[in-house]
Write a structure and sequence with these properties.
Layout lengths: L1 E4 L11 E4 L2 H14 L6 H9 L16 H9 L14 H20 L1 H7 L4 H19 L6 H14 L3 E6 L5 E6 L13 H16 L6 E11 L2 E9 L5
Antiparallel strand pairs: 1-2, 3-4, 4-6, 5-6
Helix pairs in contact: 6-8
Length: 243
């Protein structure tokens, strides 16, 4: 049904309004709202962003991939698969299996970090995701700075003030940011928390937030020289210059 008024809501003689009444249209709009509403930022979180300069949205972390049932079975050293046919109840076998599982669980509990890796937790990926979030918050607090060099200088000052290491930039062969830490990463040591991934993730998150993928700047991350003050490099390249 269409309804045309020459003077809707008393706004003036020359105004006109078109009213569309359609059940199908209303249903489709309701479905659209239902689809996008879960991705909306709650009002309380939006207030935090603009009054306290904080991003407090829940952080969704990918902890790993693959079958976690298979990883648990391997970690405990027991067969967790269901039998294909009925078998007679054996209390001795059940008690023995319970003892084996409890022994394996206690062993896993004593080696917390390595046990997480055995169970399928990708600690490096998790720490990098946390770092990216910190970097996004850092870029958000500095969003009022328009000058790019001033933004980088502020980021470097905050980085060094936090005792994370050193940040520097150079123009050869292209403009890039060098990431340096206070301690060398130990990727082969599964008994230490990979904090270097979080530290590097902070820089990555800040730069990706400042220069989004759909923008004019392309970010290329490469390994540095391997020295403590040049572990990774982030090259910032104008997209027009690459075409």
């Amino acid at each position: 049904m269409l309804n045309l008024e020459s003077n809707p809501v008393g706004r003036g003689r020359e105004d006109a309004a078109l009213s569309v009444v359609s059940k199908q249209f209303a249903v489709s709009q309701a479905n659209l709202i239902d689809a996008i509403w879960p991705e909306a930022i709650p009002f309380e979180q939006a207030v935090k962003r603009f009054t306290e300069q904080q991003i407090v949205d829940p952080l969704k972390i990918e902890i790993g991939q693959g079958s976690f049932l298979e990883k648990l079975r391997s970690a405990l050293g027991v067969d967790l698969s269901l039998p294909e046919e009925d078998t007679p109840f054996d209390p001795d076998a059940m008690i023995k299996a319970g003892i084996e599982v409890n022994t394996a669980r206690r062993k896993l509990a004593k080696n917390s970090l390595s046990s997480l890796t055995i169970l399928g937790f990708d600690l490096e990926k998790m720490m990098r995701q946390v770092g990216r979030r910190v970097g996004e918050e850092l870029a958000f607090t500095l969003r009022g700075i328009d000058d790019q060099i001033e933004f980088l200088n502020e980021m470097m000052d905050l980085w060094e003030a936090a005792g994370l290491g050193t940040l520097s930039y150079d123009f050869d062969p292209s403009f890039h940011v060098r990431v340096g830490l206070n301690e060398m990463p130990e990727p082969e040591n599964k008994e230490v928390l990979p904090l270097w991934e979080m530290d590097d993730g902070i820089v990555e998150g800040a730069l990706m937030s400042r220069y989004p993928e759909e923008g004019e700047v392309q970010i290329n991350r490469i390994d540095g020289s391997g020295e403590l003050d040049d572990l990774w490099q982030y090259h910032l390249i104008m997209k027009d210059s690459t075409e």
